[in-house]
Amino acid sequence: MELVLMAIYMLIFFHIIFYLCKSLIQKRNRSCYLLHYECFKAADDRKLGIEENAKIILRNKNLGLEEYKFVLKTFGRSGMGQETYGPRSVIDGREENPTLIDALSDVDESIFTVLDNLFAKTGVSPSEIDILVVNLSLFSPAPSITSRVVNRYKMRDDVKTFNLSGMGCSASVIAIDLVQHLFNCYKNKLALVVSAEAMVPHWYCGNKKSMMLPNCLFRSGGCSMLLTNNNALKHRAILKLKLAVRTHMGSDDEGYSCCIQDADDKGYEGFVLSKSLPRVGAKAMATNLRVLLPKVLPLTELLRYVVSSLLANKISVRRSSGTSVTPANEYPGGGARLNLKTGIHHFCIHPGGKAVIEGISKSLGLSEYDVEASKMALHRFGNTSVAGIWYVFAYLEAKERLKKGDRILMIGLGAGFKCSNCVWEVMRELKGRENVWKDFIDKYPEASMVEDPVFQEYYQKVVVEEDANFIRDVMLRSK
């Protein structure tokens, strides 16, 4: 009898050991490391300063003075500088009748440039890539862009490809989340994520204000990321993915329609950014962070928040009953707020616009230092859509602010409406590495973004004085 019991105990013991080992192995396979990334910087002849923008705007025969003033006001409030980049076909005057060749040329330049640089710097061969994910929201040709990449680099015939379209500005995080889930199924793989946008086919040539906004904000950009779940390559990793959380507000009609591709009453196609966008974005981000933050903030901060919230609610009830004598400023804002910086060291907010960055900063209780990288990425490169957060990350790296063990929160917002956030951990000291900021990082933070003298001249002459001679002179130069 004793031998039988001993055998049962041994069987249970080995079963426990087996499942513990299996769990550890599965956890190792779920690792997602970033080995390298590249951001796209266009040629100098594609820069879009205020004068170049004015010339392009004035080529639109559907705009009157009021629409022109609206565009200038929007550009001035956007937080963008004089050195962002636009599509070559738009700069050359072909925005009203773009061809398929124009669109493909624009996409090829950004995607193939960042991939060429990535392969050259990492020494990884295209034939070693096991998984390929491409994000391109507003352009979906056939064959797909993933097929175009496979053909260009002669990748293996068993490479697993995923072409994401229509996913909006948060698609970069969505692609990373997809790769992480694929890593759960496949061991020791290399994944390549490419994020870009095609502005050429969707440059708006009408006069509806909500559809003119993307012309003011969106600029050319792109990025590529090399990821792996092979622990043998861990020593080469820059970042390790801690978690990704995706929130989709598409079931809400307002959320679905606040960023949407559409045509105006004259048939001009474009992209609508409605007035409800800030409200929808705030709701989506709040829903997302309720899931994400408890997993990354320390228990002490969560307990402090719970206690503070209970006290604040109790005081609020007492005040409403007229019995409270507590000073009104004891609990600012009438409630408690989580201190994100107890678990997050750096913030990469989607550089969609100055108002977007400042709105998120205020709601999360962040300082100007915390959002400096997002504002500078917006100023130098504009809203580069799906690639935007990686220009922000590149700024932090170029400024040598990233230390081993630091945690980075990336916040992506996009059409649908979607909020896709992820948290990375820095794996090693990131010093001396060159990236897209290398030639001008010493000029930043850029003071001129507060009051750009060239823009001030245009604003004064066009918006304030409505100087007909000045506008006519610009129109003549635009022809």
- The chain-level structural class is alpha/beta
- How many individual helices? 16
Query: SSE order in H/E notation?
Result: HEHHHHEHEHEHEEHEEHHEHHHEEHH
Strands of the biggest beta sheet: in what spatial order?
Answer: 3-2-4-5-1-6-11-10-9
The helix content is: 40-55%
The whole-angstrom Rg is 25 Å
Low-confidence parts lasting 5 or more residues at pLDDT below 50?
21-26, 323-334
Task: Assign the CATH class of the domain at 31-242 and 450-478.
Answer: Alpha Beta
What percent strand? 15-25%
Mean pLDDT: 85
Overall geometry = globular
CATH superfamily of the domain at 31-242 and 450-478: Thiolase/Chalcone synthase
Per DSSP E runs of 2 or more residues, the count of β-strands stands at 11
Question: If you had to describe this structure to a student in words, what would you say it looks like?
Answer:
The protein has about 475 residues and is of the alpha/beta class. The chain is about 45% helix and about 15% strand. The chain has a domain at about 30-240 and about 450-479: Peroxisomal Thiolase, Chain A, domain 1 (3-Layer(aba) Sandwich). The protein is built from 16 helices and eleven strands. The strands form two sheets. It has a nine-stranded mixed beta sheet with strand order 3-2-4-5-1-6-11-10-9, with helices on both faces. It has a two-stranded antiparallel ribbon with strand order 7-8. Helix 6 (about 145-155) links the parallel strand 2 (about 130-135) and strand 3. It is globular and about 105 Å long.
